[in-house]
Amino acid sequence: MIKVVLCDDHAVVRRGVRDTLSEATDIQVVGEADSYANLREVLRKQPCDVLLLDVNLPGRSGLEILASLAEQGPPVKALMVSMYPEDQYAIRCLKAGAVGYLNKAGDPAELLVAVRAVSQGRKYITPQIAELLANNLAAPAAEELHSTLSERELQTLQKIASGKKLSQIAEELMLSPKTVSVYRARVLEKLGLANNAEMTVYAIRNGIV
């Protein structure tokens, strides 16, 4: 039996994933968490074969959680799931130690295939990710400017470009407005932009929102 733990801050999403996995006789959801703090407690009580980890979480993001888990002991087989397109996070996640990446908008049947592959010690990538990796290897010098952004900086860019105010972003990411302002300043500096309007245009042109 493949034991799976879910980590997503949306109960509805967890329910949908759990229902999908319950259709398989060889997969069992043994724990759920909505944050890093809860996830640590769940994993302490219930080891798993596969961790389904959301990229965009309040407080510590999925990528930050990956790093923390790697520092704490035996590696956890983390299959990242996200609402964001593959070209924004897939390679970042794989480089950070994830063993696979899935888009939440994908076919539910693909989730079953991915969980089984990961549980067997294999990495799981979609054809889209395979193409991204191939392009990345073929032309590393052509990397976009936003590839230099940290996880939080990229999230800040996405949310500002979506029309959200700093106070809203701070609340969603469970950060202080001052911290979000620092991330915004770093984004402007790294991308060579002057204001929110230019950030929005950049995000749209590069398919970030």
TrEMBL record:
What is the protein named? Response regulator
Record flagged with keyword Transcription regulation: yes
Q: What keywords would UniProt list here? A: DNA-binding, Phosphoprotein, Transcription, Transcription regulation
Residues forming the Response regulatory domain are 3-119
Modified sites of kind 4-aspartylphosphate: 54
The record's section on InterPro entries has:
CheY-like_superfamily, NreC/VraR/RcsB-like_REC, Sig_transdc_resp-reg_C-effctor, Sig_transdc_resp-reg_receiver, Tscrpt_reg_LuxR_C, WalR-like
Taxonomically, the superkingdom here is: Bacteria
Q: Which organism is this protein's natural source?
A: Hydrogenophaga atypica
Q: Which PANTHER family match?
A: NITRATE_NITRITE RESPONSE REGULATOR PROTEIN NARP, TWO-COMPONENT RESPONSE REGULATOR
Domain HTH luxR-type: residue ranges: 142-207
